[in-house]
Design a protein that fits this description.
This protein has 300 residues and is an alpha/beta fold. Helix content is 39%, strand content 23%. The chain has 10 helices and 14 strands. α1 crosses α2 and α1 crosses α4. The radius of gyration is 23 Å and the shape is globular. The chain starts with a helix and ends with a helix.
């Protein structure tokens, strides 16, 4: 039986996305084309690899085994392909990034716009997500996250200055309810919380006192997965909110929000562009790293 490596790559993408449609979107083909490829692969192997329903796709036992065994080899093949393409030395092709929604300085626009101007043959695809996952296994060239959550085997390049999280509230809220003097008071205050998704517990607010870090479970009057809504509610006086200082800066500058409990909000390492350590970096990614470093130097 002759192996079909293209079909294996399509199968691996379906396994990652758990969706024929999502896999088709990433490949730029139709859903039926993906389905036909998987069907032919199953016929060649003589066994079902996926269980299909109208709403989801799940791997069979054979499919899970094939994905587990084939994925490392597919990653190596992709690396070999990119290494060969690197010999041209010209930045080109699709550059895929997974970026945290709170990486304000990276997502603000000017840096990425100037990168595209300097590299017209690079097509940039940015997925803004706060989910934590293996960017290599999901086919991304690089990601942008806070340094503290990046795996140690990754190469990391700083994209921001030190960061900190702060608590804020509107002047009207503070006038009505008073200014809290310690994070422990937040348990009895109206608070606006944030969570990655509806299936994940709300984020615990993190502070420090006398060099000791601690977290607080607040009384969430509102919990949302949308940072923009969280800020709007805080400005409207719905309660105290907590998040990255950069996210609140515009509202603070307009005197719509006031920082509180600042002495309990220390700085920490900021955001980093990270990518796997490979012998030969693709020119498109090298171009982004170089451009990012030059851009930051000019901004200092």
């Amino acid at each position: 039986m002759q192996s079909d490596f293209n079909a294996l790559a399509v199968f691996a993408l379906v396994a990652q996305e758990k969706s024929f449609r999502a896999a088709a979107d990433r490949l730029g083909v139709t859903r039926s084309a993906v389905s036909q490829t998987i069907r032919k692969l199953e016929e060649a192997l003589g066994i079902a690899l996926v269980s299909r329903t109208t709403r989801s796709v799940a791997l069979t036992e054979a499919g899970a085994r094939l994905y587990s065994d084939a994925q490392p080899a597919l990653i190596e093949m992709q690396a070999a392909w990119e290494a060969a393409a690197n010999l041209t030395g010209h930045p080109q092709g699709r550059l895929t990034l997974a970026v945290s929604s709170i990486a304000e300085s990276f997502l603000s626009g000017p840096m990425l716009a100037s990168f595209l101007d300097a590299n017209p043959d690079v097509k940039l695809h940015v997925t803004v997500t706060d989910d934590e996952f293996d960017i290599v296994a999901h086919g991304y060239d690089a990601g942008v996250r806070l340094g503290e959550v990046i795996a140690q085997d990754m190469i990391a390049v700083p994209v921001s200055a030190e960061q900190r999280q702060i608590a804020v509230a509107s002047p009207a809220y503070l006038k009505k309810y008073g200014i809290p003097s310690h994070p422990s008071e937040l348990a009895s205050r109206r608070c606006i919380g944030w969570q990655i998704s509806a299936h994940v517990a709300p984020y615990r607010w993190e502070f420090a006192e006398n060099g000791r870090e601690f977290s607080v479970t607040v009384a969430d009057t509102v919990t949302t997965t949308d940072m923009g809504l969280m800020i709007k509610l805080a400005v409207a006086g719905a309660g105290i909110s907590f998040g990255m200082e950069e996210s609140f800066k515009p509202a603070i500058a307009r005197d719509e929000l006031v920082p509180v409990l600042e002495e309990f909000c220390p700085h920490f390492p900021g955001f980093y562009l990270y990518y796997p350590s490979r012998r030969n970096m693709a020119p498109k990614l090298r171009a982004l790293v170089d451009h990012l470093q030059d851009y930051r130097k000019q901004a200092l």
